[in-house]
Amino acid sequence: MSAGPEQTLVHIPRLRRYARLLTGDASRADDLVQDTLERACHKWSLWRPGVDGSGLRGWLFSLMHNLYLNQVRDQLHDRQASDIEGTDEPSHDPFAHTPERLDLEQALARLNPLLREVVLLVCVEELTYAETASLLGIPIGTVMSRLSRGREHLRHLTEGGTEARSGPRLKIVT
Amino acid sequence: MNPVKPTPPSEAELHAWVDGQLDPGRTGAVTDWLLQHPADAERVQSWQSQRQGLQAMQRGVLDEPIPLALARAIRPQPRRYGLQGLVAGLLLATGFAGGWWWGPGLSQPADQRAALPGFVQEARVAHAVYVPEKRHPVEVGAQEQAHLVQWLSRRLGTPVKSPDLQAEHFFLMGGRLLPGRDGKPRALFMYEDGGGQRVTLLVSALDAELSTEAGAAFRFAHVGSTETFYWVEGRLGYALSGDLPREQLARLADAVYRQLP
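Predict the joint structure of the above. Result:
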């Protein structure tokens, strides 16, 4: 049985979608996927199926996460910002200057990258909180707090303010 | 007021409710809470629609062919022979398609089936018709392999071969000649593993125009439980179909690729 890096082939479509949502740009996204695949091949001998229960896909996503974080840190460095964690603090306060409502895509692009990752892994990749924590290498409590902050930021960006809004009521789906 | 005051759900429980990750024992209580607390319900509803909106974004990428630059990024391990053939094949495939990125637009038609090249649709039909066949799954059996390959090569007007998939535990049963929609013949090879699982490989000679258009990318298609992995190499289109997990079919496709003439 061959069990080499060609197994990664079937994961490429999902990696591409995730990268596009992460970067908001098709060619940057494919560059990120390409870097991820090259890294996976380079580090192939380090991958052990099922070691952390997340499988090959999880491993590829965690490689992509590391590469993406490096990119984001480089960008911050260029802008002389000190800390990724701080980028959604008041200097980048999403609530401060949002006269208009953004669509979801624009709102996602404004989200702090760390929050964006958690929101995407949970909502789009449909990972469990524990899988997300393991993939990102953070405690589950941090996953929950980033998810909560991410969702609230998106909500305020797309709903255009903090005031209560009258909209359709919650539908309970049983 | 309720006779029993419900325990307010934690923030984490509200998220888990949205994500379907709530402990089933708490679902009823959280749902009741939301019905009675419109402010929380409104937040939760907003998260739900975010979730749906995010899931819909870029979904089309999942059905797009894999760009060659990405498939090529997958390098074999030095110790393995794994993907050499695949990579070499991809490099060859770039030869005829100057711009391997499929055309000007990035988006693919929403209906993937409608976008399948004709030979892939033919492959899927042939797979569905002949795989369940008990008495006559093939026209010429594997015991006459040399004759089969000669015959099909002659009819297609180009050398074809029946790849050896024994390393993947699939054995050639034989093959048959099929009519294509364009009136030209197609070659179909059938393989079976020890468990009776069958895969088919359809080989089709393509017009130059079609081979450029359809070529230079690996693509998957699946309808029902049947996966098809297809690509174009030179003037031939290949479609490997099987009711197998995609990973396994990809390994078989890799094995086919390695043995292309």
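Confidence is low (pLDDT under 50) at residues 87-94, 162-171 of chain A.
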